[in-house]
Amino acid sequence: MITFDGVTKRYPDGTVAVDDLSLEVPTGEITVFVGPSGCGKTTSLRMINRMIDPSGGRILLDGVDVTTIDPPTLRRGIGYVIQQAGLFPHRKIVDNVATVPYLLGWDKKKARARAMELLERVGLDLRLAERYPFQLSGGQQQRVGVARALAADPPVLLMDEPFSAVDPIVRASLQEELLRLQAELNKTIVFVTHDIDEAIKLGDRVAVLRVGGRLAQLADPATLLAEPADDFVREFLGRDRGIRRLSFVPGDGLRLRGDLTVPVSAEVSSVRGTAEAWLVVVGDDGGPLGWIAPKDLPDSGTLAEVPAAPYGTFVRGRDSLRSALDAALLSPSGNAVAVDGSGRVVGVATREALDEALARVADGARG
Amino acid sequence: MGEEPLVRWDWIGRNWPEIQELLADHIIMALVPVVAGLLLALPLGLAGARWRWLYQPTVGTMNVIYSLPSLAVFIVLIPITGLATRATIIVPLTFYAMAVLIPAVVDGLTSVPEHVRQSAVAMGFTPLRRLLRVELPIAVPVVLAGLRVATVSSISLVSVGALVGRGGLGYLFIDGWQRQFPTPIVVGVVLTAILAAVADLLLVVAQRWLTPWSTARSRVREAA
């Protein structure tokens, strides 16, 4: 656990970067520091590994004041990922990753073996190991940066806007990768960003800082979206707060109907009589093929011969209410197809079911 | 009897031992200043990169020294280092080399990207280790570029020393001019040029070998 205890950073010219910051970064979780430029988020991060020393207050790492630890020793025990990766241009990728093990005096063979293991872990082709940083794309370099930070298996990881210099598609995949890694490794991560969407996507907890280095709110993302502490936080969260909040409501609560499915092998005549406006055609493998409107069907033949309308799915037990709503909006029927982890249809969430679930969310927002 | 040929090979054959001696003397007087200049430029360049206020005065002083005509400096030095001694040539050339190399070392060190420096700090490098393992290696291409300039200019400047009695291959110019006999002049010019070309080539090879990450980069740029 990392504890900020009344931490202040005031520069000799009088500028206050961080003002009386007190908060706890729980072990094994991702805590995101987010805020506009000048809010002291990077300064706060850098005070943890003593790249900057506080002018007041204390930072405790598992109860020990960090200013009592010699900086190089402290830093070798804390992983650090920087924007633009900060790789050493004169060292091969494998040696870049092995940097901290080398500093800790591991023998070269062991350090390199560990580096290879990490390159694999962050999803990099091992053939890149013998290349130099400039031969890699920005996204690959950033993965190497993450691998390097993890090389000596530090319990704490500091990430300073690590993904802001790459394009949005690469950024999204790096974010997914980080969440996947974190699910395996359970590091204590402090992540700094100016991007509130990134904060909400990655954070177990989000600390919103305002200009002048004061904490505006510390909460989990769902609470932050539902109950912003003040106008600053509300404004910083931006538009679509209500919709974004649905990402944190599990789709499990949706009532599913099992009677709106029909196998693709069925005769047209067998469904023409139904009163339902739309039915999902299910393929032989159990996956959805699309929606049909029984009243528009031809007179004879099987459903396989009928063109089906587009559909959207959400995975029951994994996806959020937002995904379910999205799936519904992708179908002319306005209903969402629920599938299991292997893509087999388990039922249909109708507009009525979605409406009930949304009403429950709205009810929660009231109180 | 026909016209005097430009090069008389028999003269070269007869005087070969003496030419070799002059060549060796030339190499020593050209290269000792470059090596000494580099050794002195490293700490001064480090200081200039670290304390920026030192940089301008240092480079200014060096530029003033660089602007002094070499012949004048040789003559001024004669009472101290002696007539026709190697030291009379080596001392000023060392300053000339420093004038090129100090800015090269400073530029090399400031070419280290800030995010690279920051990440080295954050990873737990001690300041000395960071300098030796990260900053100086990254500075190498820029320093080597300066070293190539310093080496070639040093090789060419040694000849001027012939006017104060110690100029390596430069002696051949004086000799040929005084006797209105072109062969020694041609030999001196050709050997000086070959020496400069070989020294430069060796430095290019050294750069490729020392900084594969940098030569590979320029190759990629050429391809693009």
From TrEMBL, chain A:
Residues 2-237 form the ABC transporter domain. Keywords: ATP-binding, Nucleotide-binding, Transport. Gene3D superfamilies: P-loop containing nucleotide triphosphate hydrolases. Pfam families: ABC_tran. InterPro entries: AAA+_ATPase, ABC_transporter-like_ATP-bd, ABC_transporter-like_CS, CBS_dom_sf, P-loop_NTPase. It is an enzyme of class 7 (translocase). Belongs to the ABC transporter superfamily. Its EC number is 7.6.2.9. It comes from Planobispora siamensis. One of its GO terms (molecular function) is ATP binding. This is ABC-type quaternary amine transporter.
TrEMBL record, chain B:
It comes from Planobispora siamensis. Residues 23-202 form the ABC transmembrane type-1 domain. Keywords: Membrane, Transmembrane, Transmembrane helix, Transport. The chain crosses the membrane at residues 27-51, 63-83, 89-110, 155-174, 186-210. It is a multi-pass membrane protein. PANTHER family: GLYCINE BETAINE/L-PROLINE TRANSPORT SYSTEM PERMEASE PROTEIN PROW, OSMOPROTECTANT IMPORT PERMEASE PROTEIN OSMW. This is ABC transmembrane type-1 domain-containing protein. Its main location: membrane. InterPro entries: ABC_transp_perm/SBD (IPR051204), MetI-like (IPR000515), MetI-like_sf (IPR035906).
